[in-house]
Amino acid sequence: MGVYLEGMKYNEWPIANLMLTELDSPTITKMAKEIASPEEVILRLRRDAWQASSRPNIKESLIGGKEYSLAELSDKRWIEILQDALSCLSAERNYRGRARQTVTLEKKPPTGSQYNEMEVSPHLTVWTNVNPLGDITSNLKQAFRLLKPVHN
């Protein structure tokens, strides 16, 4: 189960609003303290490269190099990750549009280079595993409780 925010233009680019707010005043460590098991809540910021409407796999996809549990994420590391993620949006358009970056395609095309300048955008996923065994309703409620501070 997760909370997901994609780097797209709906509602004035909400991911940009979140990142700019968090850069100004990070709340990640405060939020982790509100969660019963922050080690079970995983944060992933991903860079998507766009080729028309498709998103080819790129080597630079994981912003920050990996996924982080909220328990291990410091404000300092969160800010570094946010700064990298914000570079995926156009500074000239007040971060309300995709930026262009040189990315490395995971699969080299039959012709051309595997290094391409492409439009990119970030997307954020914060998730936790739901145990499929036992009382699924109870397990879903537990996952929802874990993620509620993130959603709020």
Give an account of the 3D structure.
With 152 residues, this protein is α+β, with helices and mostly antiparallel strands. It has one domain (2-151). Helices cover 30% and strands 27% of the residues. The protein contains four helices and five strands, in the order βααββαββα. It has helices at residues 14-24, 28-34, 75-86, 136-151; strands spanning 2-6, 42-50, 62-69, 99-104, 115-127. α1 runs antiparallel to α3 (75-86). The longest helix is centred in the C-terminal third of the chain and has 16 residues, at 136-151. The chain starts with a strand and ends with a helix.
Strand-helix topology:
Layout: E1 2-6, H1 14-24, H2 28-34, E2 42-50, E3 62-69, H3 75-86, E4 99-104, E5 115-127, H4 136-151
Helix pairs in contact: 1-3
Mean pLDDT: 91
Domain unit count: 1
Major pleated sheet? 5 strands, antiparallel
Order of helices and strands: EHHEEHEEH
Number of strands: 5
Alpha-carbon distance between the two ends? 15 Å
Poorly predicted sequence stretches spanning 5 or more consecutive residues: none
> What is the general shape?
globular
Please state the oligomeric state of the protein chains shown.
single chain
DSSP helix fraction: 25-40%
- What structural class do you assign from the helix and strand content? alpha+beta
> How much of the sequence is in beta strands?
25-35%
Radius of gyration from the alpha-carbon trace, in angstroms: 17 Å
Number of helices: 4
